[in-house]
Design goal:
The structure is a single chain. This protein has an 8-stranded antiparallel β-sheet. It has a two-stranded antiparallel ribbon with strand order 5-8. A two-stranded antiparallel sheet has the order 6-7. The chain has 2 domains: 10-87, no CATH class; 94-215, no CATH class. 30% of the residues are buried. Helix content is 15%, strand content 28%. It is of the alpha+beta class and 221 residues long.
Amino acid sequence: MPTQADHPNIHSLLGLHPSSPLLIQFLQFLANEMTPVPIPKIYPDAVYFNYYTLGLSLLFIPQPGFKPNPTRKLSEYDNDKLVLDSIYLYNTPPKLVNATAGSGVIGRAEQAFSAFALLPLELELAVDNKNKDGNVVTRPQKVEITREGSGKDFVRVLGEPDRKGGGVGPTSGSIGIWCEWTQNGIMVEFGGEEAIGPGAWERGKDAVWKTITLFAPQGNI
């Protein structure tokens, strides 16, 4: 199992092409030196490289003037016309799997992913963010992501989210709560019974994360 030592800051991979040596090196690192082959999902405005056994999905967006054709094979594309826009990390902690088995809380696509291969993981943070009032909020330099990380763990380090949503509607079919720290390029979706239905935000502090999306930090909001 790989560890975090000697690998690049994951956020630094954003903006790279699929054939970038740095990105390939990172994927080989996760897969223990073998270059993993993605299972692609191709849309006119986005191309997903899914690595199910690594708990990882990479979202590439086309450059201006290029429109991916879903009927073509991935090998037929010019990699320089695709740029990494977002990185999805998946989680399958026992608490989340046991609580949601057969409940529909975790979608079939998410169930197909293993837990991200590099957990626990540290993400570098922008130390001096500004809140909505323009005041500087000092935060730690890093946040540690573990398989058991819950809502209260993220808020303790990152502070109150810049954006949040979900957790409304009936328990069955409800969208789980999510929080976004825009200035750090981190969005966290939570799973389990604590994250859905009436009262989800009151229980959400104990909800375990199921998906983390990494994107380019967007500065002050």
